[in-house]
């Protein structure tokens, strides 16, 4: 087995990106984008060493992003080509047989693509992943089209680009300062043959905020959480259900306002994001929550969801009791929950059922509620 090092180029300052941090450190589903790139290589069995070229100003952020990974950073240069040369020189003492050079802002690289590049290096000196050009290409002068470019022999190229290590190191040293845009170009200029292997459309380079938003959306998943709660009746003249005061011959026992439905809804959302349960967030032993309106519990769970970039697809309640009748209040309950969360009422459902006189709800000792939250995170 040849030894194969990886050089990840992450020294850019991302002027086109517009965020407060360079794009490689932008958050992607709760972690640094670069961390996902690092994981792809650090977890690959054929990779023996990973070096990352970064801007020295980013050292602290990089250290945070690379926590737990066996990687080393080297200071990059003014241009991409300088960063690659410096990274290759830093790897020279290890004398790897092969090196893969990869953009830090391509976090979706797959093990299969890494395998293809390495496999092709058995017979080639340079290998780059390429994908077809689907769009028609035009040459322009300002906004005026001057020609249609035949795309028959054109491809779009990606990284990781793979090379025999001694050859690419020598090429970079010899051609330092030429500002070539990729490493295959350095090898071509050096007179070496570079071949393509199939790239992957999903292996995108994050360049703009739009790219990041699209990638984040494509990685989101649907999750479901459930909640269940029970409260006993006590003396009183109304109960709270889904944030609505419902007149009744009894009241509800509870530390807060005892809104059994909102408690179940809170647990459903917390469950969908794995954030514990309502008792952890609002301990019944805390006097602060005595008589508290339960809409704040539901809102808190929802805020935790949105803070993770998540959205609520649907929240479905089932209220289980003989009395009071829920039907006359159903529309108000839906509207109130939608108002608490600031979501469309079409995303909220309130249903009710009895237990046919059976059990504690049948004996009218209390009310039970279930909720199912469907979220995208
Ligand atoms: Mg409760």
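^ Assign residues to that structure.
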């Amino acid at each position: 087995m040849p030894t194969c090092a990886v050089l990840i180029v992450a020294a850019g300052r991302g002027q086109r990106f517009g965020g407060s941090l360079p794009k490689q450190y932008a958050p992607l589903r709760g972690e640094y984008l670069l961390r996902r790139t690092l994981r792809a290589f650090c977890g690959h069995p054929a990779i023996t060493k990973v070096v990352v070229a970064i801007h020295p100003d980013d050292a602290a952020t990089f250290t945070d992003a690379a926590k737990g990974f066996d990687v080393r950073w080297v200071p990059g240069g003014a241009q991409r080509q300088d960063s690659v040369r410096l990274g290759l020189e830093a790897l020279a003492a290890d004398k790897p047989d092969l090196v893969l050079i990869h953009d830090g802002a391509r976090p979706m690289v797959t093990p299969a693509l890494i395998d293809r590049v390495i496999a092709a290096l058995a017979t080639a000196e340079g290998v780059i992943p390429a994908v077809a050009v689907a769009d028609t290409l035009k040459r322009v002068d300002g906004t005026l089209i001057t020609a249609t470019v035949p795309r028959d022999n054109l491809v779009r190229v990606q990284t990781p680009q793979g090379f025999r290590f001694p050859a690419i190191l020598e090429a970079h040293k010899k051609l330092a300062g030429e500002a070539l845009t990729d490493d295959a170009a350095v090898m071509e200029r050096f007179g070496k043959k570079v071949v393509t292997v199939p790239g992957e459309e999903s292996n995108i380079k994050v360049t703009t905020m739009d790219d990041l938003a699209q990638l984040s959306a494509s990685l989101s998943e649907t999750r479901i959480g459930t909640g269940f709660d029970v409260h006993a009746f006590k003396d009183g003249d109304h109960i709270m259900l889904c944030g609505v005061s419902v007149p009744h011959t009894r009241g509800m026992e509870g530390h807060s306002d005892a809104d059994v439905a909102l408690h179940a809804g809170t647990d459903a959302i917390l469950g969908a994001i794995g954030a514990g349960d309502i008792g952890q967030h609002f301990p019944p032993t805390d006097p602060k929550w005595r008589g508290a309106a339960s809409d704040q519990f539901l809102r808190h769970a929802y805020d935790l969801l949105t803070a993770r970039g998540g959205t609520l697809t649907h929240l479905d309640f089932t209220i289980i009791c003989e009395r009071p009748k829920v039907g006359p209040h159903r529309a108000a309950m839906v509207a109130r929950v939608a108002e608490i969360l600031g979501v469309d009422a079409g995303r909220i459902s309130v249903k009710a059922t009895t237990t046919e006189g059976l059990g504690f709800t049948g004996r009218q000792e209390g009310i039970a509620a279930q909720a199912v939250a469907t979220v995208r995170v």
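The pocket of magnesium ion is lined by residues 229, 231, 254, 260, 263 (CB under 6 Å).
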